[in-house]
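Morning run. Coffee first, then this:
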Amino acid sequence: MKDALGRGFSDLIPDNLFDDEFDPTASEDSAVSTLTELPLDSILPDPDQPRKTLDEEALNLLAESIKSSGVLQPIVVTKTASGKYLIVAGERRYRASILAGQKTIPAIIRTIDDQHRLELSVIENAQREDLAPLELATAYAKLQSQFNLSTKDIAKKIGKNKITIENTMRLLRLPDFAKETMIKYHLSEGIMRPLVSADEKLIEKILPKIIDGSYNVRMVELAVKSEKPKSSDAVLKSRESSATELHLMNSLKTFHPTRVKIKSRSLTFSFKSEKDLKSFLKTLK
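And here it is:
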């Protein structure tokens, strides 16, 4: 499954993601799974694997990574009647390991019943209302990584919009320090999501303003947009407008504007309440 930028979400999931801190089903996973090292020649690709072709260049890059660092995230398999192991999730890692000249691969062994039971457990947890955004993102990523579900499949099973699922999963691309801050200060998904595309230095600069309440979601969006590299006159103009909008929102924060928008030769202000609007209008008299 690709996002709007054409990058696979499987490429955005960190290899060390599924630990007790973020994975609400870690204990269930441990109870129904066996982690071991299996010979590659004892493993069979799933003939019903929906992804029939794999990007050769990406596969070679992964093979090079495996040569230097090994396979960091185990594949998931089930044992067949013949004694071989059928891949449930991780065929890309399996093929890259063969290219890398490996003899074995770390694998999580489950029975079909255990696989189904754990999938239901992850889905049940993902439907909870009390999960933190990063726990929710991890649950979605686990459904994709360990159960070969597309974001469309996940959305159907969870009962949410596909775009909502993808937006939440994007939080996993935040640097570790931003994730830690998000957890520590209980920051919302909405205010953190614009930082996914930001440079780490900019994130470090913006986070304190989010924590102390100086920046709302719109101001974070403007701060990120105003720092993006210029590539044309149109982009430069957009950057200048974003910087001006951010400056105005900072200057007017006493009146709680929710949005300041510059478009062409017009300037638009939005306020949370009629009281805030009237307070602002009094200053213009």
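The first helix runs from residue 26 to 32. Good start to the day.
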